[in-house]
Design a protein that fits this description.
heterodimer, A: alpha+beta, 30 strands, globular, disordered N terminus, B: 268 residues
């Protein structure tokens, strides 16, 4: 029955009016007229609303202003729905479904199961939807327009389209990564077009009287943009920082809308722009990581607060004053921007898998519960959560926690670094931070007195990080304790390099003999990489403490009974020692600081962009890149070589393609990707595309 | 002096033959074992292995010292195993001292091998070290240590064996059952509850079957089992009951305990 209804497709006004190959960009006076029309568009009057997908696939609409469920309809959404003006847009197995927001009932359906939702926007009666067709390697774009709840026109193009906006009677549609077309929303006629030369455009969004464009940052359509096709220096982007999952400012505007169960609903950034469109409200961006919500300083790598939710966030939207979060237990919470306390709560009436929230100026009457918790207590709570999925978020909390110079933070880090099963990012972050501590000597000493016991069920202390911390603190009196751990079979091999490094840096020559005994005893016994690393560390420590033992280490490094990895590692230690000895001595060290130095941030960024990372980042566009090797009407190219610089923000710059004929096709695709931030910062990469 | 162990080395390195004839086997072994980077024979590992075996057969303080010195110079795992085997074969007080120093070697296989050798040595000095090895991070070492303590007699470390039993070291349970004295029984029973009973069950079975345990200790065990009121304790009591003769002095206590369990079950 339903399928029969869907079979009645509305196909109107198809093609030919927009996205043509020969359109004159930025042509005046039409461009100015279009911008005037946008600027004079009436202010939006959207209803604050939540649309959620329930576990059984139903859609529910929740009216935030009235605080009640407005409707519930049976549906099979395959993408997280989009709230667009008076409509709810979603794809279902049968095609594109556009429902009325007021009652959840169908406005119209495009019964094309190959359509995949990209984005949608609406204003008043006018709706524009961007889609892709099919699952193919290089899906084309589809843009549809509707007025008064009825489909009016469809445009198909061989290039991808991105998330559109509507301002008055104008639809603003980004496409092909750097182009933006301005269409008459009632008929789909293209009135004007822009092409950006220095930025990728994956999103258009209306913000007050302006339309903003962007992907990695947001910028207004202004005079400079219209005249020169360049974004210019005025744009808004939060401070870059390593975050687990590294969610972008905006989802890739050219990728299909994520599924309701996608992790992208649970790991993402949320923010609201201030009126000027040049900054973020409350100076915050919100980072959602499953059950954790971080209020992050938009302009600095700092956390203002972190809230721990009872269940995963599946929808989030920010507004001035705070952030609304819908959790999978079906609760909408408004967390106050100032301290993360819960200021408002509503029950949606059952668990949900995904939620789309439109606050549209909704300002709940705030009554924050209880006393505001200090940031440190919030971070400690988040860091101590016992949930393997949250490990990345815990690591972030630990990174911020470790910035506190309070001595007892060292105790917290010792507890978090102590082995409790498989080591994940959180433990690594804690151990890195502990290894960098410069105060809390009593806690370090006490921890080193501990020992592993099977019978008592106590894990081994994290002696590697403790030894490094002890070296920072110049705690020579812990050397006997460290030597005890060096002798103990309960000390895990992973801890030995840190332990030996600490002993070497402490500079107590009494440790040289036990270290040499260790090195001799185990140098031929290091059968795995961790043991070989420990042997290398022992050689380095011995050479640091007793340079006259150089020949002894040389002898061991040439022992044919020793595994090659251990010999190589000892040889490296010898080479490094020689190089250090050849380096002129540094200037005398400055006098010890009186105040404890701020803790260096733990850094979970990769050292550099490896080929695995490069392939992972480029994988989503791999098929499209390959298609570039087959230009229409020309012989295909067997391969292309792409050289690029990745800037400090992970964005590809100075992209050069050989053969040059493929530059135009490949460059925008590469520009659409963002690489993870690395310790190295700016990097040159070469990527070869083969058919 | 037997030279059979060196024969392959002689074949491999004819130049050693004269040295051996002139100075004897120890001198040759010393040359072979002296330094890790000494003059390299064609098959250094093979020659070292044969030398270690020969020293094990030779025995005596000098051989132990040579083995000990070579171990301290570092050996790959197969040769280290040969060295420990040689010390175990020697088994005298010098060898035991050398083995004790290897009880904290990083490789668990070595520690397990050392524990076994110490058990066979019957040297009382090994007892505290074996007690420590019950707390080893590796299960193989804990098991070997428990078995070794069974051979050596666990008198001073019975409490460690009881804790190891509670932590699931099954070999420790058997040793506890075999060696616990009447005075140890109350402490042992103090650790038995519903959660640890499966781990202690082998110890309790062995204790109840022992001829040299006083009746009152056995009765205490039976009453403790009855107090636990579970399927496992009933199972143990029935097993014990089946092995007792009709006039065994423990039988009335077992019967009473089983009746107590039955009535408790009926009441539920």
């Amino acid at each position: 029955m339903r399928r029969a209804a869907l079979a009645v497709l509305v196909v109107a006004g198809c093609g030919g009016q927009a996205f043509g190959p020969s359109f004159r960009e930025r042509e005046q006076p039409e461009m100015s007229r279009v911008l005037e029309a946008i600027a004079s568009a009436p202010a939006r009057d959207d209803a604050p609303f939540v649309v959620a997908v329930t576990p059984d696939g139903s859609l529910i609409g929740w009216d935030l202003r009235e605080g009640r469920r407005a409707w519930s309809v049976s549906a099979e959404p395959t993408a997280t729905p989009v709230l667009a003006g008076r409509y709810v847009v979603a794809t279902e197995p049968s095609g594109l479904w556009v429902r009325r927001l007021e009652d959840g009932e169908r406005a119209f359906v495009l019964g094309d199961p190959e359509l995949r939702l990209v984005g949608a926007d609406a204003e008043g009666d006018a709706l524009v939807v961007s889609l892709t067709r099919g699952e193919g390697e290089s899906p084309g774009g589809v843009v549809i327009g509707a007025v008064g709840g009825a489909h009016r026109w469809t445009e198909e193009l061989p290039l991808p389209v991105a998330v559109p906006a509507v301002a008055g009677s104008i639809a603003i549609v980004p496409w092909a990564h750097q182009r933006v077309s301005f269409l008459e929303v009632s008929e789909g006629r293209e009135r004007s077009r822009l092409r950006l030369e220095d930025a990728v455009v994956g999103h258009a969004l209306r913000h007050g009287a302006r339309v903003l464009l962007g992907q990695h940052e947001l910028f207004a359509i202004d005079e400079q943009l219209v005249e020169g096709g360049r974004r210019g220096p005025r744009f808004v982007r939060p401070q870059g920082r390593p975050l687990p999952g590294q969610p972008p400012l905006l989802p890739d505007g050219y990728e299909r809308r994520f599924a309701p169960d996608s992790a992208r609903n649970r790991v993402r950034l949320a923010w609201a722009l201030a009126e000027d469109g040049q900054s973020f409200t409350d100076g915050l961006v919100y980072f959602v990581f499953y059950r954790l919500v971080f209020g992050l300083d938009a302009g600095a790598d700092e956390a203002r607060w972190v809230a721990t939710l009872p269940s995963d966030a599946v929808g989030v939207a920010a507004s001035p004053g705070g952030v609304m979060v819908v959790t999978e237990d079906g609760t909408a919470r408004f967390l106050v921007a100032a301290d993360g306390r819960e200021g408002f709560r509503a029950q949606l009436g059952g668990p949900v898998r995904a939620a789309e929230i439109r606050l549209a100026g909704f300002a709940p009457a705030l009554a924050p519960e209880g006393e505001a918790q200090a940031l440190r207590a919030q971070l400690e709570r988040a860091a101590a959560l016992d949930d393997a999925r949250l490990d990345g978020g815990r690591a972030l909390a630990i990174r911020y926690l470790a910035r506190s110079a309070e001595e007892d933070v060292t105790r917290n880090l010792i507890a978090l670094c102590t082995p409790q099963g498989v080591a994940g990012p959180a433990r690594r972050a804690a151990c890195d931070a502990l290894a960098a501590r410069e105060n809390g000597a009593n806690f370090v000493r006490d921890a080193l007195r501990g020992r592993a016991s099977f019978l008592e069920g106590t894990p081994p202390p994290p002696v590697g990080a403790l030894a490094r911390a002890a070296a920072n603190m110049r705690l020579r009196n812990v050397v006997p304790l460290l030597l005890g751990h060096l002798d103990s079979p309960a000390t895990p091999a992973d801890e030995l390099p840190g332990l030996l490094e600490g002993l070497g840096r402490l500079g107590d020559a009494r440790a040289a003999r036990p270290i040499e005994a260790f090195l001799r005893l185990y140098h031929a016994d290091a059968t795995d990489a961790r043991e070989a690393e420990a042997i290398g560390a022992a050689a380095s420590a011995l050479l640091a403490l007793a340079p006259d033992r150089f020949a002894a280490v040389q002898e061991l490094a040439s022992d044919p009974l020793a595994p090659q990895a251990a010999r190589d590692r000892m040889s490296r230690a010898l080479t490094e020692h020689q190089a250090a000895a050849a380096t002129p001595p540094p200037e005398p060290p400055p006098p010890p600081r009186r105040a404890p130095a701020p803790e260096p941030a733990t850094d979970d960024r990769p050292e550099r962009i490896t080929s695995e990372i490069r392939h992972e980042v480029l994988r989503p566009i791999e098929a499209r890149l390959r298609r570039c090797l087959e230009p229409p009407g020309a012989d295909p190219f067997p391969s292309a070589r792409v050289s690029m610089f990745i800037d400090e923000e992970g964005r590809p710059q100075t992209i050069s393609v050989m053969p040059a004929a493929l530059q135009e096709c490949i460059e925008p695709l590469i520009r659409s990707r963002t690489f993870p931030l690395t310790r190295r910062g700016r990097e040159a990469l070469v990527h070869v595309i083969r058919r | 002096m037997e030279y059979d162990g060196i024969t392959p080395a002689e074949q491999a390195r004819p130049e050693l033959r004269g040295v051996m004839k002139r100075f004897g086997l120890p001198f040759v072994l010393l040359a072979l074992l002296a330094s890790p980077a000494a003059a390299q024979p064609a098959d250094p590992q093979g020659e070292l292995a044969r030398s270690l075996d020969a020293l094990g057969r030779q025995g005596g303080r000098e051989a132990v010292q040579q083995i000990e010195a070579r171990v301290a110079q570092g050996l790959p795992p197969p040769l280290l195993a040969r060295a420990v085997a040689a010390l175990a074969r020697i088994g005298d007080r010098y060898a035991v001292s050398a083995l004790l120093s290897l009880a904290s070697h990083r490789r668990a296989v070595v520690r397990a091998q050392v524990a076994e050798a110490l058990g066979r040595s019957r040297d009382a000095r090994a007892r505290p070290v074996l007690g420590d090895l019950l707390d080893d991070p590796d299960a193989r070492v804990r098991s070997s240590a428990a078995v070794a303590l069974g051979l050596l007699g666990p008198e001073s470390v019975i409490d460690s064996l009881v804790i190891a039993t509670a932590r699931g070291v099954s070999e420790a349970a058997i040793v506890v059952g075999q060696h616990a004295r009447p005075a140890d029984v109350p402490r042992l029973l103090g650790r038995v509850d519903a959660s640890t009973l499966p781990a202690f069950a082998p110890a309790l079975r062995v204790l109840l079957e022992r001829d040299n345990l006083p009746l009152r200790s056995k009765q205490a065990i039976v009453r403790a089992l009855a107090a636990l009121r579970g399927g496992e304790s009933e199972h143990i009591l029935r097993e014990i009951g089946a092995t007792l003769g009709p006039n065994d002095p423990l039988r009335p206590t077992v019967n009473e305990a089983l009746e107590q369990l039955a009535s408790a079950e009926a009441a539920q």
